[in-house]
Amino acid sequence: MDYLACELLRDSDVPLYEQLYDYIKGEITVGRLLEGDKLPSKRKLATLLKISQNTIQTAYEQLEAEGYIEVQARRGYFILPLTDLEYIESKMKNEGSTVGVYPKEQTAIYDFHPSQIDTVHFPYDKWRKYVKQHIEPVHQSSLLLGENQGELDLRQEIAQYLYHSRGVTCKPEQIVIGAGVEVLLQQLIFLFDKNTVYGVEDPGYHLMMKILHNYGYEVYPLLVDRQGVDIHAIKKSPIDILYTTPSHHFPYGTVLPIQRRQQLLNWAAEKDDRYIIEDDYDSEFRYNGKTIPSLQSMDRGEKVIYLGSFSKSFIPSLRISYMVLPKPLVKSYKEKLSFYHCTVSRIDQNALSGFMKDGEFEKHLNRMKKVYRRKVEIVLNVLKSFPQLEVMGESSGLHVVLIVKNGMNESELVARAKRERLKIYPLSNYSIIRRDDKEPQIILGFAGIIEEQLEHSLKALFKAWGMDEID
Ligand SMILES: Cc1ncc(COP(=O)(O)O)c(C=O)c1O
Question: Which positions fall inside the HTH gntR-type domain (predicted)?
Fold first, then answer.
């Protein structure tokens, strides 16, 4: 064995050696590491996990001392049999004890979810400094409720950032901060009539469809071709509001061409109650050519509601997203929704605005662009050896779409991957209209896989699909 899919939390109070020790012990206890399995060498594991060999030595020594593993001279560390422990565990379970190690649900070795980000290069120390600053007595106000629309400082930072990076022109008064795009969408729909018909891209961001269904709205799926959503489909439909991802279609990753953008804006301008919701999620990471300007930057008719998020550009657990309302909708927002308290912690908002004001966010983005570019290159390099795979959406974002031409259907691909404890996400998860594609498509998020393991993880997946590598 030359790797361990162990994720270490560097800012945890639990020392790294203890986390590694717990992980290996858990894997042995639930039977994923078996008698006779060889653990990776200290040198190899230290490089993979980016920790010192001493840390690994301490974890291995502790496991050895407790009889989980043994060291064999010049051969390495090997897993020992666990018969006695199984007995103790089943006894504890029978007696209903709350103490002990219980088998975990089968976790995936590699999870290719498109919402994953790289957590290895997160600026832990810097971010901690900004969060800590706002739990000091000089910042007592951070403990109290802030502005409902979101902290003004953060809204100012966002307005500036959007202008420079996405060409979005707006004033802080137009920005509403919320704990995730789905929270903002739930507020947004209250600005419109109950009979509003929504159009969503199909395939598209599935939560948007679910939210609208939950609120009882009629949702109209608009089939997306390789360029994005098509005006003819929109014109044939009864929709009033279109939800779209023009700069980086989710999940195809394509860019809506300028002609189609213009057509969308013209369509919206034809009637007062037509709007376009532009979800600009993860458009920051572009690997070829210049960044694509937002649709909002072309809008002269106050028709575009712009949605943005820090989930990919920073971290998803922070839950900070925002919407930029066209000026006419700010008035209705104030009348109908301004009584809702902001759904994001004031401490986090203040930490983020300080982080942005000091230029740390920009530095972080630049660093991450390089990290993700390297990861995309690894993905593309591996794909070269597998002619049964076609790739889409590799120019931007943190996932690609694989078109798989090995004769298997979607469920077979998912099942084969699952058997090897690899988690993958088929296109049908993001589609409303069921299509029987002869060549199934898989959405493959690569950002969350450690760089050193990316090649291995992809090859493991393709092997699970029965594919041979060609030179
Ligand atoms: C297109 C799109 N928009 C928004 C989101 C979620 O954004 P947030 O984390 O800010 O709620 C996702 C998550 O996958 C997405 O794919």
Answer: 14-82
Write the burial class of residue 355 (CB in 10 Å: 0-12 exposed, 13-18 middle, 19+ buried).
buried
C-alpha span between 118 and 451 (Å, rounded): 9
Task: Give yes or no for a contact between 264 and 412, defined as CB atoms under 8 angstroms apart.
Answer: no
Q: How far apart are CA 143 and CA 130, in angstroms?
A: 15
Residue 181 is encoded by which pair of tokens? 């795009």
Report whether 235 contacts 269 (CB < 8 A). Answer: no
Residue 410 backbone dihedrals phi, psi, to 5 degrees = -55, -45
Q: Is the CB of 201 under 6 A from ligand 1?
A: no
Secondary structure (DSSP) of 207-237: HHHHHHHHTT--EEEEEEETTEE-HHHHHHS
Report residue 97's pLDDT band, with 50, 70 and 90 as the boundaries: very low
DSSP E strands in 28-116: the ranges are 69-72, 76-79, 110-111
What confidence score (pLDDT) does residue 199 get? 97
Supply the residue whose CA is at minimum distance from atom 6 of ligand 1: 181
Computed on alpha carbons and rounded to an integer, the radius of gyration of the chain in Å comes to: 25
Percent of the chain whose pLDDT exceeds 70? 94
Token pair, residue 33, equals 């590491």
The pLDDT-based confidence of 231 (bands split at 50, 70, 90) is very high
List, in order of start, the domains of the chain with CATH numbers: 16-93 (1.10.10.10), 124-360 (3.40.640.10), 362-464 (3.90.1150.10)
Q: How far is the CA of 238 from the centre of ligand 1 (A)?
A: 26
User: What's the whole-number average pLDDT of the chain?
Assistant: 90
Beta strands in 262-360 (DSSP E): 275-279, 304-309, 321-324
First to last CA, the chain: 24
Tokens of 244: 């779209």
How many other C-beta atoms can be found within 10 angstroms of the C-beta atom of residue 165? 18
Residue with tokens 């300007």: 293
Structure tokens at 385: 């050896």
Max distance between CA atoms of the chain, in angstroms, equals: 79
Closest ligand 1 atom to 311 CA: 9
Distance of CA 24 from the midpoint of ligand 1 (Å)? 34
| Residue-by-residue DSSP string for 95-156 | TT-S-S--PPP---SEE--TT----TT--HHHHHHHHHHTTSGGGGGGGS---TT--HHHHH
In this structure, which amino acid lies at residue 187? Q
419: which 2 tokens? 């058997």
* Coil vs helix vs strand at 267: helix
